[in-house]
């Protein structure tokens, strides 16, 4: 366009002989004008003149920025004046601007300004041109509006996320404190009842031992329930572990009957169990979780039944088993049926309700049922009663958990992948067990053991390894983590829970670099594969040293390494110090007690011969973390073994204990086997 106008004779505009030119421009463009170099209007096409309701004669001779068609904004007027100046200097400009129409409305125009040159190359005319861009502007405004809305929504979401994070923090703190308050008395209950069950002095009758067993088992059940409540977020996230095992249906029914028949009798109502002949003898599922589901359903039914009774019926088809809990209680209103499975919700949630409880029972039951691939449904009628139906797969194709395999004595010694030493064992040499499914790696480990004058047995899966441990005297174990069937973590767990095997040092090897600290699960150490020769030699040396620290014959007194050792028990709760003292005194340890962190530091300063410290973490005035930190700064006790005992059992507790300077960490309520294993590892 520049080129076209620049070839027109200058007299064309001066003579106003522009009809042909004007018609051409009206067809080409919405708006076009011709200005002299100073910005004075010479020509404007008809389209904008009609739109704004003025004639060309009214505009000619005026400055372009003084024309009445521009929106009266100082910034816009100054922008147009500046464009004229820049264009007069040979520059092109491009802007969006508003044009005022005859009815006073404003229309968005995209306009540009171009210089037109004379015959001698000087700027002679300025040509502004424009197009209506209302649709584009409308879209831009909509986009801006959408962006603002999106920004506002994002800000609200960020604020909500911060609120949820804060709420989650408060929840974690509450659960940590609740855990401590519940686990502290439970710790004493389990330790003391466990000692009564052992009846080492043989001064209790069989009936008294049975009573102690009931107390101990009830305590363990309560502990499991506490753990489930603390982990309810994990359950909802689908991260709770399921352990499949063979469950005797008859035994399950007997357990339910023993648990609830007396409770029903106390309320003068009946409790009956009816089992259809189609129900098989066994099913495969997680026994603990299934028992918890049924316990929650029956407990709930008994709580809300004042007259009549509760029935537990069992029926089955080819693939599923159906447990029905039927009561003649108060029933549930139809509008409340959907909410009863929500956490902390009850059918009657008012402050004047007649029935107590946390409102977690049905929520946990529903969560566990989903984990076990089951489903709970409910039918109810107010004042007539309710029927809860648990539908579960029989689990015929599920893999049975390693714990059940061990308990059922179904382990079998399988042939070695190559000739090992099982047929030529000598009591004069130590025997190492290699559990590794990679035959080449297993052979390398076996050969290195032989070179270092150790005997070695080889198993290519965890179950075969456990069978060898039960049959032969094993001094140390090299355990691969990624095994077929049950992995190394499962095998390690079984070994450390068994009083007959938890003394055996176990070294974990794995190609994985994300196992975490396996020492916290009882391993002596861990190393990533592939293993170099020096790595294998280091592993064998560590295992040999650890084995030497154990009682080689593993006599009746499995804890003799602790005999005569002096231990400082630091805990502000006298129930814990009493129960721990009873437990440790049975192992002939010398015991001192500090009832606070400050008292512990004073005793450590005054007494020189402590061999080990058991440190509670949650204490008033000075917590266990601070005591351990201060103890580590004291030259006299910078190396003394410290085991942290905590009832919080929250994520990150173990790391905090180790960072403070503890050698190991044991969760409350204390498992006796795990505690003694952790203590023995320090000597």
Short descriptors:
683 residues, alpha/beta, five-stranded antiparallel β-sheet, five-stranded mixed β-sheet, 22 helices, 22 strands, disordered N terminus
Overview of the molecule:
With 683 residues, the protein is an alpha/beta fold. It is 43% helix and 20% strand. The strands form 5 sheets. A 5-stranded antiparallel sheet has the order 2-1-5-4-3, sandwiched between helices. It has a 5-stranded mixed sheet with strand order 7-9-10-12-11. β4 (106-117) and β5 form a beta hairpin. Mean pLDDT is 80; it is low at 1-18, 23-28, 344-358 and 552-559.
What is this entry, summarized?
The chain is of the alpha/beta class.
Spans of 5+ residues with little confidence (pLDDT < 50)? 1-18, 23-28, 344-358, 552-559
* Ends apart, CA distance between termini: 96 Å
Q: Beta fraction of the residues?
A: 15-25%
Q: Any idea what the radius of gyration is? A: 42 Å
Q: What number is the mean pLDDT?
A: 80
Number of strands: 22
Helix content: 40-55%
Please, how many helices?
22
**Global shape:** elongated
Q: If strands are numbered along the chain, what order do they take across the biggest sheet?
A: 2-1-5-4-3
Q: Give the class from helix and strand content and strand pairing.
A: alpha/beta
Strand count, sense and closure of the main sheet? 5 strands, antiparallel
């Amino acid at each position: 366009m520049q080129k076209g106008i620049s070839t027109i004779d200058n007299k064309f505009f001066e003579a106003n002989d522009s009809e042909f030119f004007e018609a051409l421009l009206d067809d080409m463009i919405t708006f076009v004008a011709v200005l002299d170099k100073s910005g004075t209007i010479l020509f404007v096409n008809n389209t904008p003149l009609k739109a704004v309701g003025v004639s060309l004669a009214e505009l000619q001779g005026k400055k372009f920025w003084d024309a009445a068609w521009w929106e009266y904004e100082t910034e816009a007027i100054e922008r147009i004046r500046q464009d004229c100046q820049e264009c007069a200097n040979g520059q092109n400009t491009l802007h969006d601007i508003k044009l005022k129409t005859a009815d006073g409305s404003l229309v968005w125009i995209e306009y540009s300004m171009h210089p037109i040159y004379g015959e001698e190359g000087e700027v002679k005319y300025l040509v502004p041109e424009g197009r209506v861009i209302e649709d584009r502007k409308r879209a831009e405004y909509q986009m801006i509006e959408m962006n603002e809305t999106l920004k506002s929504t994002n800000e609200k979401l960020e604020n909500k996320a911060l609120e949820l994070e804060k709420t989650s923090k408060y929840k974690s703190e509450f659960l940590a404190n609740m855990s401590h308050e519940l686990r502290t008395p439970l710790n004493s209950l389990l330790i003391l009842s466990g000692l009564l069950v052992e009846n080492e002095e043989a001064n209790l009758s069989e009936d008294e031992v049975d009573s102690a067993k009931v107390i101990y088992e009830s305590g363990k059940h309560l502990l499991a329930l506490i753990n489930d409540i603390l982990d309810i977020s994990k359950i909802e996230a689908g991260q709770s572990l399921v352990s499949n095992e063979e469950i005797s249906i008859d035994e399950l029914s007997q357990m339910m009957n023993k648990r609830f028949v007396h409770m029903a009798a106390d309320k003068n109502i009946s409790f009956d169990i009816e089992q259809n002949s189609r129900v098989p003898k066994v099913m495969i599922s997680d026994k603990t979780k299934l028992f918890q589901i049924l316990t929650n359903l029956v407990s709930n039914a008994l709580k809300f039944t004042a007259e009549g009774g509760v029935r537990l019926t069992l029926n089955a088809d080819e693939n599923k088993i159906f447990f029905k809990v039927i009561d003649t209680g108060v029933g549930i209103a139809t509008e409340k049926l959907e909410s009863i499975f929500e956490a902390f919700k009850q059918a009657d949630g008012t402050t004047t309700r007649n029935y107590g409880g946390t409102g977690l029972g049905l929520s946990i039951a529903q969560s566990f049922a989903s984990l076990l691939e089951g489903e709970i449904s409910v039918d109810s009628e107010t004042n007539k009663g309710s029927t809860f139906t648990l539908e579960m797969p029989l689990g015929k194709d599920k893999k049975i958990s390693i714990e059940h395999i061990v308990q059922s004595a179904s382990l079998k010694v399988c042939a070695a992948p190559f000739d090992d030493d099982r047929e030529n064992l000598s009591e004069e040499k130590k025997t190492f067990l290699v559990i590794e499914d990679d035959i080449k790696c297993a052979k390398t480990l076996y050969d290195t053991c032989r070179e270092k004058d150790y005997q070695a047995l080889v198993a290519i899966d965890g179950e075969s390894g456990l069978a060898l441990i039960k049959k032969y005297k094993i001094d140390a174990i090299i355990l691969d983590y990624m095994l077929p069937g049950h992995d190394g973590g499962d095998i390690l767990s079984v070994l450390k829970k068994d009083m007959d095997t938890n003394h055996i040092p176990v070294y974990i090897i794995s190609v994985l670099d994300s196992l975490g600290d396996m020492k916290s699960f009882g391993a002596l150490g861990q190393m990533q594969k592939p293993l170099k020769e020096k790595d294998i030699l280091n592993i064998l040396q560590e295992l040999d040293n650890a084995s030497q620290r154990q009682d080689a014959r593993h006599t009746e007194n499995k804890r003799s390494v602790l005999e005569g050792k002096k231990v400082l028990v630091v805990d502000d709760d006298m129930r814990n110090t009493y129960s721990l003292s009873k437990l440790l005194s049975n192992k002939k340890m010398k015991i001192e007690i500090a009832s606070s962190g400050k008292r512990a530091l004073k005793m450590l300063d005054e007494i020189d011969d402590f061999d080990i410290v058991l440190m509670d973490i949650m204490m008033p005035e000075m917590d266990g973390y601070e005591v351990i930190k201060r103890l580590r700064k004291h030259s006299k006790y910078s190396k003394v073994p410290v085991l942290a005992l905590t009832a919080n059992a929250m994520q990150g507790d173990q790391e905090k204990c180790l960072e403070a300077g503890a050698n190991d960490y044991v969760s409350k309520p204390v498992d006796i086997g795990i505690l003694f294993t952790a203590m023995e590892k320090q000597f």
